[in-house]
Amino acid sequence: ADIRFIGGKAAHFGFLRRTLPDESPHPALAITFDLWDSFLSQQVSPGMSLGQFIQSKLADHTYPPNVPALRSDLDAIRSAIQNTADFTPEQRAIITASLQSAGLTGANIRFRSSTNVEDAENFSGAGLYDSFSGCLEDDLDGDTAGPSWCDPTEAKERGVFRAIRKVYASFYNEN
Question: Is 0.85 topped by the overall pTM?
Fold first, then answer.
């Protein structure tokens, strides 16, 4: 029943933890789809939400696709998600508090998709989306200069909000 709120993998994560407690990530946290919905509702240009921008880029595509045009539009969507859209201060505070409460601090956190249409009876979406790691401390250290707090060999900071946006952008990969 929770699949509609957090996706299939996250909804069944408790089963994985009970079955393979030593081989499954701990601690873990699922982020609900309402964050995605709210992210889509933000304004990315005057009078246009991110969701409307995405719809406008995809509206004219039909099957079979004009692949070069589709690639260009998907690239523009991914760019808008990663480079234009951002989380509100309120969303950042909730995400930060949730990650801290779950004990997800001091190390890279792996963010991955768990959509509600990824693993249906007649469709397996395994591998369609990308996963990314982020370091909460990079977002909380008061600067944007590297290196990453969690991985000093990374010259740039690799914050969790960047990682989440990159996962969101992967929803619009070519595959």
Answer: yes
